[in-house]
Every structure is written in structure tokens, then in C-alpha cells.
Design goal:
Layout (H helix, E strand, L loop, with lengths): L1 H18 L2 H12 L2 H11 L16 E10 L2 E10 L7 E7 L7 H12 L3 E5 L12 H9 L3 H16 L4 E10 L1 H13 L5 E5 L15 E7 L3 H16 L4 E6 L17 H19 L2
Parallel strand pairs: 3-4, 3-5, 5-6, 6-7, 7-8
Antiparallel strand pairs: 1-2, 2-4
Helix pairs in contact: 1-2, 2-3
Length: 292
């Protein structure tokens, strides 16, 4: 069963990150599982579930939340804001929450609320806003993200950093946390943003070229999944290059877990123990770097 699970996860990751062809996925999963019904069950267990319950209720009375809309870098922008109602006099660090390749999903909004309750101002940009915003259809979202203007996305996030970092309740320090596509984005934001980004946390994000490490000014924390050979192949040289360049970087690999182990809406890939440890490390790191 473990071999079947690992093979199924590899097929699903190829679908989500490479070919995006659901017919090919179903054909491959059927060959693996023995029937179309079993294949659909495998896919359902691995895929994130839009119907999964949020850990933090969107109407949680401890929080103020709203969707921000406007223009950044000359194009339409959209972002979900979450912040604590209490402690208005306390200056808080701003944390950008960068989504996976499915866009600004309810799960990413839930992660933003968790970060807000941990003591930060959380802003989760919808980096598909210039293309009309995140669609409900996740396959459509993946297609859109593959055609997104990456330089525009970086420019929009840096514009949000400047705007939101100057809010009255902000400490002026800015961090970013990203997952998968968003983890890769955090690394590239660290390359592009210079001293404007204080701290970045990348969960299983494909890394930039090691030659870019010298440009990084932010402190980085990198989380990798032990079974995620595709991402780890770039993560090892990226971490080594950051250390060789004298950058502040902590990298952790969690043994025997899959890519997307933090996503609690994916029943078969979520690993509660690894997710809890990575989250504890993430929040402590962000407080260390952004408080005050």
C-alpha cells in the first residue's frame, strides 16, 4: 500500500505541476489502481478538498477580515486581510501569505487567519487578480497560473508590501510565507525585494538558481518534504549557496512525508506531526524577525 500511495502521489504531482491533463491523470491512475473507481478514490484522497472545514472560522470574532481590491503595479489586485481585533495599540509584523498554484483558495485564507491569530497582520494576495481572479475550478486556476506574468506578480506583491507595511498597526517589518508555487515565489521575492523583505518562509518551493543567493537580504526558513525528490533536487544546492554567501538561512527536511504535507485539506498527503513542527518553527521564526 505504501508503494501504491507513493506512486499515486508522484502521478498527481506530475499532473498538478507539469502536464495539467486530467484525462492523462485518470488513465495513469486507472492503470495503477486497477479500475476507474479506485483511481477516482486515489485522486480524491490526494487532492486538496475545497469542502474541507477551516481550522479558524471565517467569522471568528477575534479577527477582522476583509477582501481588499484595488490596483498594484498598474493592474487589478486583490488580497485577503486578517488581523486581530484586540491589542490595537500593539505594532505587529506584516506577513504575506502566498498561495499554491490553485490561487487564493479558502484554505489559504484559513492559513492567513491562523497567522493573524499568531500575532501578525496577514495579507494573502490573489496573484491571479490581473487575469480575473482565482476561479472556483482548480484545474482552470492551474492553467491560469501557468500563464501569469511572474514579473508583474512580484511587482504587485512588492507594492502591497510598501502599502501595508506602512499601516498604523504595522511594525514596518515584512515577512512572507508561501506554499509550493508560493514557496518558490517567496524565494524569488527574497531575491527581488532586497531589504524590503525582512523574513521569508518557503514550504516545499522549487528553488531559484544558486547564483541568485548573493542577492538575498532577508532571513529565510525553508521546509522540505523527505519524499519530494522533484523539489529537493533544487533545494539542496539553493540552501548550500545561501550558506556559502553568508545569508541567514535555516533549512529543515521532514522525513517520510509528501509534498504539501502542511495542507490539511489533502487527506493522503497531510502529515499532522510534520505540519505542527514546521508551523511551530515558522511562527517562532517570524516573531523573532518581525516583532518590535
Amino acid at each position: 500500500m505504501s508503494d501504491l500511495h507513493d506512486a499515486a502521489v508522484q502521478l498527481y504531482d506530475a499532473f498538478t505541476h507539469e502536464h495539467h491533463d486530467r484525462r492523462t491523470l485518470l488513465k495513469q491512475m486507472t492503470a495503477l489502481a486497477g479500475s476507474a473507481v479506485a483511481a477516482e478514490a486515489l485522486i480524491a484522497g490526494i487532492a486538496a478538498s475545497p469542502a474541507a472545514a477551516a481550522l479558524i472560522d471565517p467569522a471568528d470574532p477575534r479577527l477582522k477580515t476583509r477582501m481588499l481590491t484595488g490596483t498594484d503595479a498598474g493592474k487589478p489586485s486583490r488580497a485577503y486581510l486578517a488581523m486581530a481585533r484586540q491589542g490595537a495599540a500593539t505594532k505587529r509584523g506584516l506577513v504575506l501569505v502566498i498561495h499554491e498554484n490553485r490561487g487564493l483558495t479558502p484554505h489559504i485564507q484559513d492559513v492567513a487567519r491562523r497567522i493573524a491569530l499568531a500575532g501578525f497582520i496577514a495579507v494573502a494576495p490573489d496573484l491571479l487578480a490581473p487575469q480575473g481572479g482565482t476561479p472556483v475550478d482548480e484545474d482552470r486556476a492551474r492553467t491560469l497560473i501557468g500563464t501569469a506574468d511572474y514579473d508583474l506578480a512580484l511587482a504587485q506583491v512588492q507594492s502591497m508590501m510598501a502599502k501595508m507595511g506602512s499601516r498604523q498597526r504595522s511594525s514596518g517589518k515584512v515577512g512572507a510565507v508561501g506554499f509550493c508555487w508560493g514557496g518558490a515565489f517567496v524565494d524569488r521575492l527574497a531575491v527581488a525585494a532586497g531589504t524590503a523583505l525582512t523574513a521569508g518562509v518557503a514550504y516545499y518551493g522549487p528553488a531559484p538558481a544558486p547564483s541568485e543567493a548573493a542577492k538575498v537580504q532577508a532571513a529565510l526558513m525553508l521546509h522540505y518534504a523527505g519524499k519530494d525528490a522533484r523539489v529537493n533536487a533544487g533545494g539542496v544546492p539553493w540552501t548550500a549557496a545561501l550558506k556559502a554567501a553568508g545569508k541567514s538561512v535555516e533549512a529543515f527536511t521532514y522525513p517520510d512525508v509528501d509534498h504539501a504535507f502542511n495542507n490539511d485539506t489533502s487527506a493522503d498527503r497531510y502529515n499532522a506531526a510534520a505540519a505542527a513542527l514546521a508551523w511551530q518553527r515558522t511562527i517562532a521564526f517570524l516573531h523573532q524577525r518581525l516583532d518590535g
